[in-house]
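Render this sequence as a predicted structure.
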Amino acid sequence: MEPFGGTEVDVRPVIGGAPARQARTVGVEEELLLVSERTGEPLALAPAVLAAAAAEPVGEGRALEKELHQEMVEFATQPHGTMDAVREELVRRRAEVARHARGAGALVAALATSPLPVQPSRNLGRRYRWMAEQFALTTEEQLTCGCHVHVAVASDEEGVGVLDRIRSWLAPINAISGNSPFWQGHDSGYSSYRSRVWNRWPSAGAYEPFGSAAAYHACVRDMVATGVLRDPGMVYFDARLSAANPTVEVRVADVCLEADTTVLVAALVRGLVETAARAWQEGEPVPAPPAALLRLASWRAARSGLDGPLLDPRTLREAPTDVVLGALVDHTEEALRDAGDLALVRRGLTDLLAKGGGARRQRDLYEEEHDLGAVVRACARITAGSD
């Protein structure tokens, strides 16, 4: 029996497929951890890795970017119309970052938090210095690696129509991506402890419906005007309008251990955006669960991950994981089918529930080795595509 509805024939190892109609483009940002090959501890080598990438005369390595701390780097894919293309670039870019890291004396690992204890080194720059002065310990604790998915929208009005309608469905995306069970040398008890650390920012997390692009932008202006935030880039809603691209940016996911999980997340996010955009175009009413309940759904997803239970977005009551993920597929089914992604999503969720995601993989590795350094090294091999 297919646990996520229907029977998809010929589900072979092909990512995506030919869309039935023109699909929205999607791009992915991934933050990756730089670690020691010997100990697995994070290394403050981002400047060296970025310099090596920038020295290449051509290639996408030049697009690597620094983040808040020197123990991590970030890359962004180009926008793509198919999940085949997203996966191809993700695998290539991860291998490219791994090559630059090796040249600097490090490994690179798709881990959303460091399993081993670390005191991060903040990158230089006026903005990062302002953040450290303003937010104190919260800034120092933010060595966390996320995955942000950008999906094209036609206008800010459509984008806000999407933001208002996807709120309830974002917590299951966090559960799917959960890849941060360890924090400062201890098992946190969470699947996504990164999301708990990230939500210490005062602007992070669930939001209320906006109703219009004008109301959204007014909210952002008012938040910055308080003086608590330096600029609109510090508005860290679970999903927001991108300031740099004509996209909705969904920001709830951990960086995923395996590229295939990232592709699954990207396909589901695109399905959510397309489903919400169609509802906005049809003038369907906006579901309006309060942000207070959505924060509880977010906590439940971070704590439980794929082991469940989760809060069902339709009722905001606890339900088994397979029921919630089945509801997510049902909700986005038409959009997934039209984009050519339905078979990919059904197969991906079935496989993920069977073998577990990044959090379970890390815990299983620790049970085998009883060595967090060995966990990090194994994850680095997976990230680079050598395991």
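Summary. The domain at 121-372 is CATH 3.30.590.20 (Creatine Kinase; Chain A, domain 2). The first helix runs from residue 46 to 54.
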